[in-house]
Design goal:
Helix content: 10-25%
Strand order of the largest sheet: 1-32-33-34-35
Largest sheet: 5 strands, mixed
CATH class: Mainly Beta
Structural class: mainly beta
């Protein structure tokens, strides 16, 4: 009889431990989305929640929709056009959704119903007349949300009431050697007591740079410049700094003030153990006319590693030398791990508008394999080089595939040793203009080549560069990123379609038409009741008269409850065993 008791005790204990472990794992599962790329320093876009999964994704429904309130009157940009919309991935912290807009509005919403909890508007007079499309994300730091406003000032907002805790005034003023205009796109990156910023503005002739400030004193610690000053007399830019795959070139940037570019569009990554910053740089300008910049134009169109403490460059890898097609690395940099020769090694992953994905060793910037093609290519990877094509000479121009809005336009995701990246298929005829003045920093025009734009999601094995499967979308895909959530993939296209795929196979599980472009990454997080929600930012390309806002998706209630059926079965089994155990004890007492 004692043996029977022991067996029952073991069974009960085992089931109890399994149940408690399951409940504990769910309780510690990250329910928030605090940073633009999910993980602060790796930008992997990988949320491991399992409440919404491949089995129940078909049961998703719209829980609420919220429209961005319009400022009255509008804020107008440098060209006098009213500014509206957002490229901000919604953040989710403790049941609250945070977002920001092109016209420097900040909002906190209740994740349960989309109601505004608090908000803040940067005063109109501070941002009127600034370059449009400022703001490509916000980030969490020390119970605050950090936002870069249109005037390049950094704001820290209180999580609860949206009040301003502190500001760092314009970080784009009085930049040595700059003759262009900046706009603030990315939120800062915080590391220890460093606040790292990297404004954009290459299309306005700005001089690309990254900088670090002290978080406590707000004093500038260092600046690292991507290109030389826009003044004559800098023929030998960084000839001594040969730390990459392309040799510094005599007279690289010519002897002209009509140069600019190299500004940083994507979110950087950081190795917090070694104190290394990894960032991707923009294209040189004038974009389509390279006659004033005859060399490879270091360090544009490159992945660069910097020492966070000093700002000194460690290595660089330039993917496109002497770029004539606006083929910058404009998406977030991913820091991950892979197995090489049986050992774990840190890698840096970057996508380019040239239609290639780079996988580099984090230690030295050397590639693991050849760049991976992920879109339609009519032009060879070596079509740009330091010794040819310094200008698109033909009056008819040249058909370029991918063109200046093709290739990798949306940030990739990284999960379980695989890269998930969308390649944009776009072909345009690109024609150069004069590059004699600073009035036209695109340096030409791109016109239709009569070919339809579409896009494809690629699932790639990181260690080999092999494509495992693809998913075709019959429209363009510019800013929506790829988001991994548990065992599903979330996509948002320019045609207003949100897709949910099986992570392992690429099979379509769910599709929703939101009626406006999805131009920012979809994110995932829990409301205050613990219910996971999918947040879809829509209308994000700023068209006046179009809806702009966020749609929240969640499981139908019956579907959500059915996901806990297995736990209820285990509980019922435990109760049944307890009853049986008690009856057995009673029978034993009677026998005694």
């Amino acid at each position: 009889m004692k043996n029977k008791k022991s067996i029952l005790t073991i069974i009960l204990s085992t089931i109890f431990i399994v149940l408690i472990s399951s409940s504990f794992s769910k309780s510690i599962e990250d329910k928030d989305w605090k940073y633009p790329g999910f993980e602060q320093y790796t930008n992997n876009f990988y949320h491991k929640q399992s409440q919404i999964n491949s089995k129940n994704a078909k049961n998703l429904e719209i829980k609420w929709a919220w429209e961005i309130p319009r400022r009255n009157p509008f804020v107008r940009d440098k060209e006098g056009v009213p500014v509206r919309g957002s490229w901000t991935p919604p953040l989710v912290i403790n049941g609250t959704v945070y977002t920001a807009t092109f016209d420097s509005q900040f909002f906190a919403l209740d994740a349960r119903d989309g109601k505004i909890l608090c908000n803040y508007e940067v005063p109109k007079e501070k941002i009127e007349g600034m370059p449009r499309y400022s703001g490509r994300g916000i980030t969490y730091y020390d119970n605050s949300i950090l936002m870069a406003a249109a005037d390049c000032s950094i704001y820290a907002f209180d999580l609860k009431d949206c009040s301003v805790k502190w500001t760092l005034p314009s970080i784009c003023q009085n930049i040595p050697g700059n003759l262009g205009y900046y706009r603030a796109m990315n939120p800062p990156l915080t590391y220890k007591d460093y606040l790292i910023i990297e404004p954009t503005g290459g299309e306005y002739g700005a001089r690309g740079f990254a900088a670090a400030y002290n978080l406590t004193t707000k004093k500038l610690l260092w600046r690292w410049y991507v290109i030389p000053p826009a003044v004559e007399g800098w023929k030998n830019w960084h000839l001594e700094a040969y730390r990459g795959n392309v040799k510094p070139y005599p007279n690289d940037w010519g002897n002209s003030s009509v140069i600019g570019g190299g500004t940083i569009w994507g979110w950087p990554a950081a190795d917090t153990e070694k104190g290394i910053l990894y960032l991707g740089t923009g294209d040189p300008s004038p974009d389509l006319n390279g006659s004033t910049r005859p060399g490879p134009n270091l360090y544009t169109d490159s992945v660069v590693a910097l020492n966070i403490s000093t700002g000194k460059m460690i290595w660089y890898y330039q993917l496109t030398s002497h770029d004539l097609y606006d083929h910058d690395i404009g998406v977030s940099i991913i820091l991950g791990d892979t197995i090489l020769d049986g050992k774990k090694e840190k890698i840096v992953i970057a996508g380019s508008k040239s239609g290639f994905v780079l996988v580099l060793r984090a230690a030295d910037g050397k590639p693991l394999h050849e760049p991976i093609p992920v879109s339609q290519h009519l032009n060879d990877i070596n079509d740009n080089n330091p010794n040819a094509n310094i200008v698109l000479e033909s009056a008819e121009g040249k058909i370029v595939c991918p063109a200046n809005n093709g290739g990798v336009q949306a940030s990739p995701a990284f999960a379980d040793g695989k890269i998930y990246v969308v390649g944009q298929n776009q072909c345009l005829r690109m024609v150069a203009n004069s590059a004699k003045s600073r009035d036209d920093f695109f340096g030409g025009r791109s016109i239709s080549a009569g070919l339809k734009e579409n896009s494809t999601l690629y699932a790639i094995e990181t260690s080999t560069g092999k494509t495992l499967w693809t998913f075709f979308m019959n429209d363009s895909y510019r800013k929506g990123s790829a988001t991994i959530s548990g065992n599903i993939i979330l996509l948002g296209a320019d045609n207003g379609l949100a897709y949910i795929l099986d992570k392992n196979s690429g099979v379509l599980l769910f599709e929703l038409e939101v009626g406006a472009p999805i131009g920012a990454p979809i994110t995932v997080g829990a409301d205050s009741d613990g219910k996971m929600r999918i947040f879809v930012p829509f209308g994000s390309r700023g068209a006046i008269g179009r809806e702009n806002g966020i749609i929240a998706l969640g499981l139908k209630e019956r579907s959500r409850y059915s996901s806990y059926l297995s736990i209820l079965i285990v509980i019922a089994l435990i109760l049944a065993l307890i009853v049986a155990y008690k009856k057995l004890n009673i029978a034993n007492h009677k026998n005694d």
